Amino acid sequence: GEGIAQDTTRRGPEATSRIAMSLPKLEFAKTGRSTCRECGEGIAQGVMRVGIEAFVAGRVCDCWSHVKCSLGAMFLERCTAARGKCKATDEPFKKGDVRLAVCSKAHKAYYSMAGMGDAVRPIVEASEGEYTASDITGFLALSKEERAAVCAAVDVKATASAKKRSRRGSDVTIAEVTVAAVKDEKKDAADTPASANRRSGRRSSAVSAPPAPATPAEDEEGEEAGDSDGLTDFERQREEIIARNKARMAALNIGTLASEVATASAKPANGPSQRGIGSKRKKEPKEDAGPPRRSLRGQKIAPDATLAGGVDYERRDGTVILANGMYSGSGTRSDSPPPPSRPTGDVKLNSVNGEESADEAFISFLRDTLSGVTAASSDFGDGVTIKHDRGPFTSAKSLVGAKIKLTDEAVAKVVPRGVTHLDLAPYDPDGPLVAAAGDKDGNVGLWRVDYEAPGGADDEGDGSDDGVLFYKPHGSYICHLKWGRGGLAGRLLTCAYDGAVRTLDAEKGVFTELFVSEDEDEFSACDVTADGRTIHLSDNVGNYHVVDARSGKLTSPAVQLHEKKINTVHLEPGAERAVATSCGDQTVCVWDVRKCGKGAKPLSRLQHSKSCQAAYFAPNGSGELLTTCYDDLIRVWRPKSGADAGSVNDDPKSCLKIKHNNQTGRWVLPFRAVWTPAGDGVVIGSMRREIEVFESSSGKLAGKYSDAERMTAIASRYAVHPSKDIIAAGTASGRLHIYRK
Q: Could you read off the pLDDT of 475-500 as tens digits, one per residue?
């Protein structure tokens, strides 16, 4: 309005731009990713939306709403104190002034009588007559004069700029409308008494009413003057040139040729893949939050005398045991114990995201795929030795030469939370590829990578999400996930912080419980012998446990090997007489499995300068040990010559050091470098969203793989297929990325 024009004339072009930036934005949605802050529904591409600037999560951003939702959330009120300024005019509010609030959920922008016209009028116009000033909340509470002023400021007027917007049919912001209004009214504003006050250095604080609508006589004069279409001579000339160019392009058939070229070179849309779990999900209605919680004192209720004794101790799941023996948690108290925080006994293969038909089809697929190795595992009885695998293993050289890459079909969300461990079924090189992943909440996802729904991509198939089903066999963080060998061949071994070890048995269709801690131990790492008979476990306080997988009992009492959490446990391939543990106490230790009793001393103690996240023996039996540390180094330790089997040269100068940025921060799981199956290379992620392969002999970078459009997050967990040139990488979003030919 005139108030803005006057203030802008005094402040100059910079003030005009700043005031324009503080007005709401009105535009057509460029994509379909935004969500209305009022109703919570998505805003489709091309739909008109309203945005206001707000400070959210430590930054200034635009909060978007539907036009109708934005108008429905607006309200008029009187200032209860002389605080704040109008976002449009920058004039301070006085006590008792009428102001209008444009809302986006909890964020509000206030406008005075002089500024609300430029802020709200385009939004009312975009409602196409469904809303007027009288529909704004609080309108009826104003006086007759104030209501008239609000109507004059907010209701739509057929201005020339409005005609031009409708003719162009393009996106327009309220900021552009305001600047145009300032330019159109600058000449008239210069002759007003308020402008004279500005020239004399006095600031006018009076609220200026918007200009009155043009009379029919004035409209007729404008049409006679040749301004009936609202365009200048320059704009008319521009429209003629555009029309002439369009006719020329149509004659040359350029539009059809351009569409053919765009189709041939079409690239995948930016953003993470929508394949996998949740790809067909429907938004559920929001549940009623219920009444607000209030303390007993706030409700004027006497305290409960039974709680006077306080809390005895707190359980791992957050519930507490009171001194009087009652259980308390989630605001309730009862005499009966709370439900267990983890599944008990065997867990059936009933997926969380799939239908019953999908579960049956997946179990049948696993039986057919793993039946051969599962049957062979029964031959591993007492006295039977392990025959080590033979054949060509995947090497760093073959990975680099294969030129592996990502495709749209090779990316899927497999688990709801961040991937903590993953593995590829290594049994049949020519058979179907099956990927497994565990996450932070105890979910285990299985993905048939090459799955195709029968009948085409639009068919629902077996009820799974693009061949992905996930289960809930554990109650907390998955600390180990590996396809078994030997006596556990054909089974998926999982372990979690909930103190349970399970195997996926496709023949029975269940997650079988192998071992569960009776002392509420939180297992942090796990490994199993090649014959599948013995499980080696560690917990968050540095204890080491050995379990007989056949009986489900400890073979000996737990022994404390470290004073802090043990991050990884790994048995030396082959004789399996040594085990390596990495710990947060800045050490990696190698122990003799036969002498891991009370008072055990390590064969080798490898000192690091910061916390160690992983330590793995080379799979080729060379005795080399790969460690990953927060000091931005990957180390390859060589075996100690002439010493006991499994001993590692603990001289820091003797190891190979590879510089690598391991500072993943708070929200990304720490990197854990892994060996290539041939033992000649090291695979690790990168803070640049890449997968890097290093030569273990020289430390040189052999190759790196990335796809900014398909892998949009940092991968911190990896698995390499034993016999095929395939790398699987997991991210904090729960997605797996399969790099292959």
A: 999 999 999 877 777 889 999 999 99
Crossing angle between the packed helical segments 233-251 and 254-264, to the nearest 10 degrees: 70
The residue type at 266 = A
**Inter-residue contact 335 to 327 (CB < 8 Å):** yes
For CA atoms 16, 21, 27, 30, give the dihedral sign.
positive
CA distance 645 to 573: 11
Q: Name which of 216, 717, 697, 632 is nearest 418 in CA terms.
A: 717
Nearest to 449 by CA among 613, 620, 273: 273
The first and second tokens of residue 459, run together, are 């068919």
| pLDDT 10s digits, 616-625 | 999 998 999 9
Give the full edge-to-edge strand order of the sheet including 327-329.
311-314, 320-322, 327-329, 332-334
Tell me the whole-structure pTM to 2 decimals. 0.60
**CB under 8 Å to 678, separation ≥6 — which residues?**
393, 394, 395, 396, 398, 619, 620
Q: Tell me which H or E stretch contains 705.
A: strand 701-705
3-state secondary structure 96-148: CCEEEEEEECCEEEEECCCCHHHHHHHHHHHCCCCCCHHHCECHHHCCHHHHH
Closest by CA to 500, choosing from 514, 516, 521, is 516
In which residue ranges of the chain is pLDDT below 70? Answer: 1-21, 156-230, 263-273, 279-286, 315-318, 327-340, 372-391, 427, 453-463, 642-645
**311 three-state secondary structure:** strand
- Asked whether the beta carbons of 705 and 728 are under 8 A apart, the reply is no
Q: Tell me how crowded residue 390 is: count the other CB atoms within 10 A of its CB.
A: 6
Going by C-alpha positions, the residue among 483, 421, 463, 426 that lies closest to residue 672 is 421
Q: How far apart are CA 715 and CA 736, in angstroms?
A: 9
Mean pLDDT of the chain: 80
